[in-house]
Design goal:
The complex is a heterotrimer of chains A (about 290), B (about 170) and C (about 775). Chain A is of the alpha+beta class and about 290 residues long. Chain A contains twelve helices and 14 strands. Chain A folds into three domains: about 45 residues, Uridine Diphospho-n-acetylenolpyruvylglucosamine Reductase, domain 2; about 120 residues, Uridine Diphospho-n-acetylenolpyruvylglucosamine Reductase, domain 3; about 110 residues, CO dehydrogenase flavoprotein, C-terminal domain (Enolase-like, domain 1, 2-Layer Sandwich), CATH 3.30.390.50. In chain A, helix 5 runs antiparallel to helix 8 and helix 11 runs antiparallel to helix 12. By secondary structure, chain B is an alpha+beta fold. Chain B folds into two domains: about 80 residues, Beta-grasp domain (Ubiquitin-like (UB roll), Roll), CATH 3.10.20; about 70 residues, [2Fe-2S]-binding domain (DNA polymerase, domain 1, Orthogonal Bundle), CATH 1.10.150. Chain B contains six helices and five strands. Chain B has a five-stranded mixed β-sheet, with helices on one face. The radius of gyration of chain B is 18 Å and the shape is globular. Chain C is of the alpha+beta class and about 775 residues long. Among the domains of chain C are: about 150 residues, Aldehyde Oxidoreductase, domain 4; about 240 residues, Aldehyde Oxidoreductase, domain 4, CATH 3.30.365.10. In chain C, the strands form eight sheets. Chain C has a seven-stranded mixed β-sheet. Chain C has a five-stranded mixed β-sheet with strand order 9-18-17-16-10. In chain C, strands 20-28-29-30 form a four-stranded mixed β-sheet, with helices on both faces. In chain C, helix 16 links the parallel strand 29 and strand 30. The longest helix of chain C has 27 residues. The relative contact order of chain C is 0.13. Classes of the chains: A alpha+beta (about 290), B alpha+beta (about 170), C alpha+beta (about 775). Chains in contact: A-B, A-C, B-C. Chains B and C meet through helix 3, helix 4, helix 5 and helix 6 of B and helix 1 and helix 16 of C.
Chain lengths: ~290, ~170, ~775
C-alpha cells in the first residue's frame, strides 16, 4: 500500500516552489504518478509530501517554437502525444512509440515528463529522445536551464535534476529536409528489453549523418557514435541501410548490457543489431519522404 | 527569470493536505467524501463506496483487473490517487447496468461466455466500453489492441474479442 | 458429433443436457454483483498483514514485537510462539507446514509474523516495527544442490503422513531432502532396451511456474463460541475444513468453510493455504480477521513444480515403443503441500498415452529452499509430456515416420488399460489424433518457415470418486440441489443444475444450486482433477434417482388409488393424467407444502470401482513460425480436441479447452519463475512473470469429441486440464519442424530458441 503522505496541489510554478519549501524539501513532484506511486507502494521510496504538478499550465501543451522545434509540455500524457497531429507530422516516430508504451492505462495516466524524470532504465521515450538530440527545460527557484538528454539521464533512476527542479518541457529539434527518425524495440515482458533510436540525414541518394542511441539494456540509454558512423555514405535505400546496419553491429559488441530475465547481455547486444536495422529502415523512409 | 516563492499564495491556495475534500461523480452520481491523499481510487471505490465490482489483482498496473474510467479514459485504479479524480467523472462496472437492464456489451459477454471466474471481467468491460465509446465499429485487430493490456487467465481471450465485436454490431 | 444418449425430453420440459445454456453466474459477473472473498465484510472485522522471511533458509533467533504491538490501531501481533494451543503443523499429505515459521524459515517469503489491526495502513506500519533476528543458513534452491553431498537438510524431523494424500502407500523418503518418491514399473525394461532397434535418450526441463489466479489468496475467519467459520477463495472447502479441525482441535461439524466465487484456481487453490493462519490470527485477536494476500505473496504461497526429466525410449523398426525409462526430478520447494501426489501422477503419466510393454519410471519430489509447489493444472503430466512427446518426434524423424503416424501406431486402444490393473482407456485416441490432423491440414505441406506438430496425453484423472449430494424437490416442483463443489470459473454452477434438470425432467430455471458451504451442503472431496462434472454429476444423478424413487412410491401411495403409476420425465403418469413432482409432494404430505429429499452417495463401487474414474485426454495441434533474427516463436494456429464423452454444456467445454491450451502456451513460451542461488525469487510479480495476452492468441479451433464413453452422466468424462498437457511438447516439435532446432528446455524463450539457431548455423558451417 502507499504509505501516508501529505498532498499539495499548486496552480502555478511559484506555488509549487512554495509548497516545496513548506514541506521542508521532504517532497517529490508527481504528475501521472504511474512510476512514483508504484515505487512508494513497494516500499522503495518514502516521501513526506507529494506535490501535484497537473494543475500547472506551464507544463501543458504541445507546440512548435520559433526554430521549428517540437516542444512538449512535461505534463502531456503518452496518449496525448500519440494522438497529436503536430507530433505525427513533426516526429512520427515518437507518436508511434507512444502508442506502445506500457499499456493503455499507463498511456492515459502517465506523462512524458514523468517518464523522462523517473529515468527507469527500461524506457522507450528516453532512447528515441536521445537519438533525436532532445533537451529538457528545467526550472527551480534559483534558475532556469536546459540540458541535453545525454547530460540529463545520468544513471538508473538518476538524473541531473536538482530535487526541487521541475522538468517543464522536452524540446526536440526540427527535422531538417532529408532527416528521418526511427525507433524499434524488443519487449518480452512489461518493459522494453532493448530500445534503439536512429536519426538519419539523407542528401541526394546517400545518408550523410546519423545518430544511434541504444537503451533499456543497461543503466541509461547511450549514444553509439561508432555505430552511427557506419551509416555515413550509405545508400539511402533498404539494401544500403541494411548493409550499414550490418557494418555497425561490431560496434555494439562493446555495449554495456545487463543479464536479466529478458536475456543475457550477448543476446541483447545481438537484438540491438537486429533492431538497429529496423529502426534505421524506418528513419530512412521518413528521411526520403522529407527530402 | 526564476519564479518567486509567493508566500501569501502558499497559505491560501495550496494547503499541505493530510485530508482532502473530494468531489467527484461516480456512475453519474455526485459524491463528496473526505479522503487521505494515499487512498487510491480502488480503495475509495471498493472500501468507502462499496463498489466492489472493480477488483485488485496485480496491484502493479499490469493486469487491468482494476480498470475504471476517469473522464472516459481507462486507468489502473490501484495506482491512481482518489484525489486526482477530484472534479472528475468516474465510471465503474456497476454504472453499466441501467435500471436493471444489461447493456448490449454485458449481454454479449454472457452470450459469448466471455468470462469464467469473472475476476478480470469488470476491467475488460470498462476497457471495452471505452473502446466502443470512441470507436463504434472496431476491427478485430483494434479490439485485440484495446484489450491487450487486460489479462485474463481463464478464457484465452477469444470469446472476449468476439463479445466486443458482437456488441459493436448491436450498438454498445 | 454426438453419439451419446441424452436425457429423454419429456412432456413437461426440454432437457438442457448438451445445450450451451447461458452461465448461471453471468449476470453477477457482468454487473459487478459477484462477491469474491476480498469483497466480504464481516461486522467487527479487523485486517491483517504478514511479515515474511527475506532469507531462504535461516534460524529464527528472536522476535521482538513490542514496538509493533504498541503501534496505533494494532490489535495483535502473532508468531508461532503465541499458538501453544494450536496444532501448528498442517498438510493434507504430509503435515510438515507450520502455520507460522517455527524457529526456522525454509524459503524466502515464508510467513513469520502476523499483525492484526483495525485497518490495513496500521497493520502495514506495525509490520515495519517487528524485529526478527535471523541466523542465515546455507540454502539449496536447485534439485541438484538439494541432493548433493553435504546439502543442508530442510526437514529434520519426520512429519506425520496424512490420509488425504491421494494414495495409499506410505511415503518412503529415500534421501533427507526427498519429500517422496513414486515409481511406476512393469515389464522387462532391460530386455526392452537390449533388443531395441532405436534407443533415444534426452534430458528436458520444464519451468517452475505460477498459476496466476487473478484473485490472490484471501480468507476471512470468525470465531464464535467454540466454532470457527472461514470464508476462503479455495477449491476444496471440505479438505480445508479437515485441516482446520485438526489444527484447532475441533470436531468437523463445528468448522464451517464457505467459498464465495473464486477468481481462478487451476489447482493452485487446492487444499489448505492461508486458512489456518487467518483463523489463528482471529483467535488471538478476538475479532474476525480478513487476510488478503497480494499477487507477490500469492506467488510465494503456491507455485507449480519445475522438473528435470531424463527419458529413454526404445523403439522397434516399425516405430513401436518397446520400453520407456524415465527419471523425473520435481523441484517442490520448502513444503510438501500436494507435491507427493503430483509426483505420483508425474510417474504415471509420462508413459501415456502409449502402449509400452516395459516401463520404469522414478519420480523424486525434492525439497528445496524455494516457495512451495503444489497442484497446478496438468499435475505432473505437462512436465513429463514435454519430454516424452519431444522424444516421439525425434524417433519419428530417425525412423522415417510421419509424426502423426508414429503416434497412431502407439496409442492405447479404447478399452485397453494403459498400464496393468487400471481402467481401460475410455477414449478413442486415434480418432482424436485424426481430428486434429484434419483440422491442421496435416497432409498438406506448411508454408515455408512454418512447422506443425501434434501432441497427445492421457491422464489418470478424477481424483477419488467420493461425493454426496442432496436433491430436494419442493411442493411446487422446483428443485434445490446441494453440492460440495466450488465455482472456480469452470462453470460448475451452470453444469450441475443442467444435470439435475435433465435427471429430474424439470425446467432448468426451476433448479437452484447451493454449493461450497461445508455446513449447508454435504460432503464432496474436492473440485479439481477435472472431476466435478463427472463425479459431482454422478452424485447429483444418484440423488435425483433417489428422489424419483421416493416420489414414484409417494405417487403410488397418495395419488394412484390402485392405478398404475408410470414415471415420465418430470413426474408420473396415472391413467391419462400427468402429475408433476410438485403435486406428488403435496399429495404425500397432504397439504400445500412438504419436500422430498433425495440423497446420492458415490464411492468406489459399481461403475466407479475401477481407478481412475476416467482418463482425461489432451490432444492438440499447433503451427508455428519463428523469427530467426530474434528467436521469437509465434503460434499461428492452435487446434484442440475436447474428448469429454458428453458435453453437458458444449460452450463451457470449449471455454475450458481454450483456456487450458493458452495456459499451456504460457509455459511453452514465456512463463518461468527464476530463483537466484541464495533463494530469492527474481521479479516475483506480474511485471516479470509473462502470461499470455490477447495479442498472443493464434487462430484457434476447438473441436468437441463426444462418444459417450465416460463413466459420468450421459457418458461424460472430465475436461479442463487435458489441453494444457501436450502444448509445450507440441510447440517444441513444431519449432523443430520449422527451423531444424530442438529446444529441450521450456519455456522456449526467444533467447533459448535463438541460441539453438546459432548452434545450428555454427555446426552446419
Amino acid at each position: 500500500m502507499i504509505p501516508r503522505f501529505a498532498l499539495a496541489r499548486p496552480t502555478s510554478i511559484a506555488e509549487a516552489f512554495g509548497a516545496w519549501e513548506a514541506a521542508g524539501g521532504d517532497a517529490a513532484w508527481y504528475a501521472g504518478g504511474t512510476e512514483l506511486l508504484q515505487v512508494m507502494k513497494m516500499g522503495l521510496a518514502r516521501v513526506g509530501t507529494l506535490i501535484d504538478l497537473k494543475r500547472l499550465p506551464e507544463l501543458r501543451g504541445i507546440s512548435v517554437d520559433g526554430d521549428g522545434a517540437l516542444v512538449i509540455g512535461a505534463g502531456t500524457t503518452h496518449r496525448e502525444i500519440e494522438r497529436s497531429e503536430l507530433v505525427r507530422r513533426e516526429l512520427p516516430a515518437l507518436a508511434a512509440l507512444e502508442a506502445h508504451v506500457a499499456n493503455l492505462r499507463v498511456r492515459n495516466q502517465g506523462t512524458l515528463g514523468g517518464n523522462v524524470a523517473f529515468a527507469e532504465p527500461h524506457s522507450d521515450p528516453a532512447t528515441l529522445l536521445l537519438a533525436c538530440g532532445a533537451s529538457v527545460a528545467l526550472v527551480s527557484p534559483r534558475r532556469e536551464r536546459t540540458l541535453p538528454m545525454a547530460d540529463f539521464v545520468v544513471g538508473p533512476f538518476a538524473t541531473a535534476r536538482d530535487a526541487d527542479e521541475i522538468l517543464v518541457s522536452i524540446r526536440i529539434p526540427r527535422a531538417r529536409a532529408g532527416e528521418g527518425r526511427g525507433y524499434a524495440k524488443a519487449k518480452f515482458r512489461e518493459r522494453p528489453a532493448v530500445s534503439v533510436g536512429v536519426a538519419l540525414h539523407v542528401e541526394g541518394a546517400r545518408a550523410v549523418a546519423a545518430t544511434v542511441a541504444i537503451g533499456s539494456m543497461t543503466d541509461t540509454p547511450v549514444l553509439v557514435p561508432e555505430a552511427a558512423a557506419a551509416f555515413g555514405g550509405a545508400r539511402a535505400d533498404e539494401t544500403g541501410i541494411d548493409e550499414a546496419a550490418r557494418d555497425a553491429r561490431p560496434h555494439l559488441e562493446a555495449l554495456d548490457a545487463a543479464d536479466d530475465l529478458d536475456g543475457s547481455a550477448d543476446y541483447k547486444r545481438h537484438l540491438a543489431g537486429v533492431l538497429l536495422r529496423r529502426a534505421a529502415r524506418d528513419a530512412v523512409a521518413e528521411a526520403r519522404a522529407r527530402a | 527569470m526564476p519564479e518567486r516563492v509567493d508566500r501569501a499564495l502558499v497559505d491560501l491556495a495550496i494547503v499541505d493536505l493530510a485530508i482532502v475534500d473530494l468531489s467527484l461523480v461516480v456512475n453519474e452520481r455526485p459524491i463528496t467524501l473526505r479522503v487521505e491523499p494515499r487512498e487510491t481510487l480502488a480503495d475509495v471505490l471498493r472500501e468507502r463506496l462499496g463498489l466492489t465490482g472493480l477488483k485488485v489483482s496485480c496491484d502493479a498496473q499490469v493486469c487491468g483487473a482494476c480498470t475504471a474510467l476517469v473522464d472516459g479514459l481507462a486507468v489502473s485504479a490501484c495506482t491512481y490517487l482518489a484525489v486526482d479524480a477530484d472534479g472528475r467523472s468516474v465510471a465503474t462496472i456497476e454504472g453499466l447496468t441501467r435500471d436493471g437492464e444489461l447493456t448490449p456489451l454485458q449481454q454479449a459477454f454472457i452470450d459469448e461466455a466471455a468470462f469464467q471466474c469473472g475476476f478480470c471481467t469488470a476491467g475488460m468491460l470498462m476497457t471495452a466500453a471505452a473502446l466502443l465509446d470512441e470507436n463504434r465499429s472496431p476491427s478485430r485487430e483494434e479490439v485485440v489492441a484495446a484489450i491487450d493490456g487486460n489479462l485474463c487467465r481463464c478464457t484465452g481471450y477469444v470469446p472476449i474479442v468476439e463479445a466486443v465485436l458482437r456488441a459493436a454490431e448491436v450498438g454498445r | 458429433m454426438t453419439t451419446h444418449a441424452r436425457a429423454a425430453t419429456g412432456p413437461l420440459s426440454p432437457s438442457p443436457i448438451g445445450e450451451s445454456v447461458p452461465r448461471r453466474d453471468g449476470r453477477d459477473k457482468v454487473t459487478g454483483a459477484a462477491r469474491f472473498t476480498a469483497d466480504l465484510i464481516v461486522p467487527g472485522m479487523a485486517r491483517a498483514k504478514i511479515l515474511r522471511s527475506p532469507y531462504a533458509h535461516a534460524r529464527i533467533r528472536s522476535i521482538d514485537a513490542s514496538a509493533a504491538r504498541a503501534h496505533g490501531g494494532v490489535i495483535a501481533v502473532v508468531s508461532a510462539a503465541d499458538l501453544p494451543d494450536v496444532n501448528l503443523y498442517y498438510g493434507h499429505a504430509v503435515a510438515d507446514h507450520p502455520i507460522l515459521a517455527d524457529g526456522v524459515v525454509r524459503y524466502a517469503g515464508e510467513a513469520v509474523v502476523g499483525v492484526v489491526a483495525e485497518d490495513l495502513i496500521s497493520a502495514e506500519e506495525a509490520l515495519a516495527l517487528v524485529q526478527v533476528d535471523y541466523e542465515p543458513l546455507t540454502a539449496v534452491t536447485s534439485v541438484e544442490a538439494a541432493l548433493a553431498e553435504g546439502a543442508p537438510i530442510l526437514h529434520e524431523r519426520e512429519a506425520e503422513q496424512r490420509p488425504n494424500r491421494g494414495f495409499e502407500e506410505h511415503i518412503e523418503r529415500e534421501h533427507p531432502n526427498v519429500c517422496s518418491t513414486s515409481r511406476q514399473r512393469w515389464g522387462d525394461i532391460e530386455a526392452a532396451f537390449e533388443g531395441a532397434h532405436l534407443v533415444l535418450k534426452g534430458t528436458y526441463r520444464y519451468p517452475n511456474s505460477y498459476a496466476f489466479a487473478m484473485e490472490p489468496y484471501t480468507a476471512v475467519a470468525q470465531w464464535t463460541e467454540g466454532a470457527l467459520q472461514v470464508w476462503s477463495s479455495c477449491q476444496h472447502p471440505f479438505m480445508v475444513r479437515d485441516d482446520l479441525a485438526r489444527c484447532f482441535r475441533l470436531p468437523l461439524s463445528r468448522v464451517r468453510v464457505v467459498v464465495p466465487y473464486v477468481g481462478g484456481g487451476y489447482g493452485s487453490k487446492s487444499y489448505t493455504k492461508i486458512e489456518p493462519l487467518t483463523a489463528a490470527l482471529a483467535l488471538r485477536a478476538g475479532r474476525p480477521v480478513k487476510l488478503a494476500l497480494s499477487i507477490e505473496e500469492s506467488i510465494l504461497t503456491t507455485r507449480g513444480d519445475g522438473a528435470a526429466v531424463t527419458v529413454r525410449s526404445a523403439f522397434d523398426a516399425e516405430g513401436h515403443l518397446r520400453g520407456r525409462q524415465a527419471e523425473i526430478l520435481l523441484n517442490s520447494g520448502a513444503y510438501a503441500e500436494n507435491s507427493p501426489l503430483v509426483g505420483r501422477k508425474a510417474a504415471n503419466r509420462i508413459a501415456g498415452p502409449y502402449r509400452i510393454p516395459a516401463v520404469d519410471v522414478t519420480c523424486h519430489v525434492v525439497y528445496t529452499n524455494t516457495s512451495p509447489a503444489s497442484s497446478f493444472r496438468g499435475f505432473g503430466a505437462p512436465q513429463g509430456n514435454f519430454a516424452a512427446e519431444s522424444q516421439m518426434d525425434e524417433a519419428a524423424d530417425l525412423l522415417g515416420f510421419d509424426a502423426l503416424e508414429i503416434r497412431r501406431r502407439n496409442v492405447v486402444a479404447p478399452g485397453e488399460p494403459p498400464w496393468p490393473k487400471v481402467r481401460g482407456l475410455d477414449a478413442d485416441l486415434d480418432a482424436d489424433l485424426c481430428l486434429v490432423a484434419e483440422e491442421l491440414d496435416w497432409w498438406m505441406p506448411p508454408s515455408p518457415g512454418r512447422g506443425r506438430a501434434i501432441g497427445i496425453s492421457a491422464s489418470d484423472a478424477g481424483s477419488e470418486p467420493v461425493t454426496t449430494s442432496l436433491v430436494r424437490v419442493s411442493a411446487d416442483g422446483s428443485v434445490t440441489v446441494t453440492a460440495g463443489s466450488t465455482e472456480i470459473g469452470q462453470g460448475s454452477s451452470t453444469v450441475l443444475p443442467q444435470i439435475a434438470a435433465g435427471e429430474l425432467g424439470v425446467p432448468l430455471d426451476r433448479v437452484q444450486l447451493l454449493q461450497s458451504d461445508t455446513t449447508a451442503v454435504s460432503f464432496d472431496r474436492s473440485t479439481g482433477a477435472s472431476r466435478t462434472t463427472t463425479i459431482m454429476g454422478l452424485g447429483i444423478q444418484a440423488a435425483a434417482h433417489d428422489a424419483r424413487r421416493q416420489l414414484v412410491a409417494w405417487a403410488e401411495e397418495a395419488l394412484a388409488d390402485g392405478d398404475v403409476v408410470v414415471e415420465v420425465p418430470g413426474g408420473v403418469r396415472i391413467g391419462e393424467t400427468i402429475h408433476d413432482w410438485g403435486s406428488v409432494v403435496r399429495a404425500w404430505f397432504g397439504g400445500s407444502y412438504g419436500e422430498c429429499v433425495g440423497r446420492g452417495y458415490v464411492r468406489r463401487e459399481g461403475r466407479t470401482q475401477q481407478m481412475p474414474p476416467f482418463w482425461e485426454i489432451g490432444c492438440v495441434g499447433v503451427e508455428v513460425s519463428v523469427d530467426e533474427d530474434t528467436g521469437v516463436v509465434t503460434v499461428e494456429r492452435l487446434v484442440t480436441v475436447g474428448d469429454v464423452g458428453c458435453a453437458i454444456n458444449p460452450q463451457l467445454v470449449e471455454s475450458q479447452d481454450l483456456g487450458a491450451a493458452i495456459m499451456g502456451l504460457g509455459m511453452a513460451l514465456g512463463e518461468e519463475l527464476v530463483y537466484t542461488e541464495d533463494g530469492t525469487l527474481l521479479g516475483g510479480g506480474l511485471v516479470d512473470y509473462r502470461v499470455p495476452r490477447a495479442s498472443d492468441i493464434p487462430r484457434v479451433t476447438s473441436i468437441l469429441a463426444e462418444r459417450g464413453d465416460g463413466v459420468g452422466v450421459y457418458g461424460a468424462k472430465g475436461g479442463g486440464e487435458g489441453a494444457v498437457n501436450p502444448i509445450a511438447g507440441a510447440v517444441a516439435n513444431a519449432v523443430k519442424r520449422a527451423t531444424g532446432v530442438r529446444v529441450v528446455e521450456a519455456p522456449l524463450t526467444p533467447e533459448r530458441v535463438w541460441r539453438a539457431l546459432q548452434e545450428r548455423d555454427r555446426t552446419s558451417g
